[in-house]
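INFO  loader      accepted 1 record
INFO  loader      residues=216
INFO  predictor   begin
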Amino acid sequence: MGKCRILLGDDHTILRQGLRKIIQEQPAWEVVGEAADGRDAVQLAVSLLPDVAILDIGMPLLNGIEATRQIVRRAKSVAVLILSMHSDETYIVQALHAGACGYLLKTSADTDLVRGVNAALEGKSFFSPAVARIMLDDYRRRLTQKGIVDRYETLSEREREIFQLAAEGRSNKAIAQLLSVSPTTVETHRASILRKLDVHSSAELVLYAVRRGVVS
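INFO  predictor   done
INFO  writer      dumping tokens
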């Protein structure tokens, strides 16, 4: 198997150098391109087709959210991780809706970057622990304010199993093999889960799972 090919997108040279150092410490990883603005990041992602693109939100010319949206649309094989100084849920939600598979904080990049890239390579989502806590606390607060019951409690035991596996990025086929059921059964349960939770996409499913504390 070849090396994991990574693209870095951040307008701060010193930060890119720091990220490159972390990546170079992994024998199976290599940096194949660097971009100082969002437009270059998109162009490099499309031309180089790296395995993972790590993008800052606050890049010039084209911000990281819009760059993510374009990369996901034009280079579907590229997994995008957002690396940001912002822990506000607004940014996190925007990143997920744009198609990012993870959200890392710059303050913990030295410990979270390796875990985030490994998760992306496995088709999973990853959030810095601090981000996951913020989202979960905010979600619980909103539920309390609205006086409503968490829809998660309406799921059956089997649906909760499938919900977590799906939120971890596993395919219907992989879930079926793990649970010794047919892919059709998984698909039926998955449709029921989406309906009960009132979510309409994989990104929303992951967001719900993080908010609920099912995955981190």
